[in-house]
Amino acid sequence: MFGAGGQMGASVCRAVLNDDDCELSSALDPRLAGIDLGQATSILGTGLSILGERDALEPDKVDVAVDFTEAEASFENALFCARNSIHIVIGTTGLTSRQIEILKEAFSKSNSNCLIAPNFAIGAVLMMRFAELAAPLFETCEIIEFHHNRKADAPSGTALVTAGRIASAKNGGFAQDVTSAELDGARGSRVDKNISIHSVRMAGMVAHQEVIFGTTGQTLSIRHDSYDRNSFMPGVLLAIKAISERDGLTIGIESILDDYLGLR
Ligand SMILES: NC(=O)C1=CN([C@@H]2O[C@H](COP(=O)(O)OP(=O)(O)OC[C@H]3O[C@@H](n4cnc5c(N)ncnc54)[C@H](OP(=O)(O)O)[C@@H]3O)[C@@H](O)[C@H]2O)C=CC1
Ligand SMILES: O=C(O)C1=N[C@H](C(=O)O)C[C@H](O)C1
């Protein structure tokens, strides 16, 4: 587990330890190096000490790495995994398209595979799919995402991917709802095809997103709320178990859900 002491990393450690088909072999988090995993995550009795460096890992003892760190670390961790034939499931957001291209190339040549997903919650996956379905039928579109105030990136990875998918599903573009005067930033950030994204960061939030479509006399709001980081765990566990069968680089968990749940 890369980022074992983080909010997501600790939840993933717990989920893996509670899953009969998985074993937690190593936990990494540089700032917590040498500390007992239980001290950092309240998961008692694992007998694992947190490692500070990738090079302390024993590649032969790791089938799948999971990364919830930050973008630059996650990119380097993935390249390490490609070199050492370790499959990797990445939930970290903020990787650039160039970095993703490089990982695609690296994993096309590696014995191991990589999955990158901006959101492992089933409801968020469905929100993105429903938004794609609605896109061609409406004139305007705005995305509002709400997150806890410790989040490093804005907009969220989920909002960026949602906007990209909505834009691909929309011929031409959305109309621009013009105002005659506006305060800088008040209308959010405009991305592709006139879709606006607004990012709220607030204590009390976990991860929430609303996609709003408008047309004459009506709006459609598609909203997803993660109230708890456990919402991501079934998707993460599914990805851990499926990654060895997914050659090269996979983006999102949709194709895995297709196989397991027959979603499309
Ligand atoms: N795909 C999904 O479904 C989800 C994705 N996320 C994404 O996951 C990422 C992490 O989120 P969150 O857990 O809230 O963040 P946190 O800041 O709580 O956790 C990140 C952890 O990674 C550690 N870290 C930094 N660099 C390294 C490294 N090189 N090796 C190992 N550990 C490292 C950090 O240590 P330190 O504090 O010392 O820097 C920290 O403990 C974010 O990008 C977020 O957007 C979050 C939720 C769901
Ligand atoms: O940082 C978070 O918390 C989350 N990050 C991901 C994102 O950027 O989309 C997924 C989810 O929204 C939680």
Automatic annotation (TrEMBL):
Pfam families: DapB_C, DapB_N. It is found in: Cytoplasm. (S)-2,3,4,5-tetrahydrodipicolinate binds at residues 148, 157-158. Keywords: Amino-acid biosynthesis, Cytoplasm, Diaminopimelate biosynthesis, Lysine biosynthesis, NAD, NADP, Oxidoreductase. The active site is at residues 147, 151. SUPFAM superfamilies: Glyceraldehyde-3-phosphate dehydrogenase-like, C-terminal domain (SSF55347), NAD(P)-binding Rossmann-fold domains (SSF51735). NAD(+) binds at residues 3-8, 53, 91-93, 117-120. NADP(+) binds at residue 54. It comes from the Bacteria. Residues 123-257 form the Dihydrodipicolinate reductase C-terminal domain. One of its GO terms (cellular component) is cytosol. Its main location: cytoplasm. Residues 2-120 form the Dihydrodipicolinate reductase N-terminal domain. NCBIfam families: dapB (TIGR00036). Homotetramer. Belongs to the DapB family. Catalyzes the conversion of 4-hydroxy-tetrahydrodipicolinate (HTPA) to tetrahydrodipicolinate. This is 4-hydroxy-tetrahydrodipicolinate reductase. It comes from Acidithrix ferrooxidans.
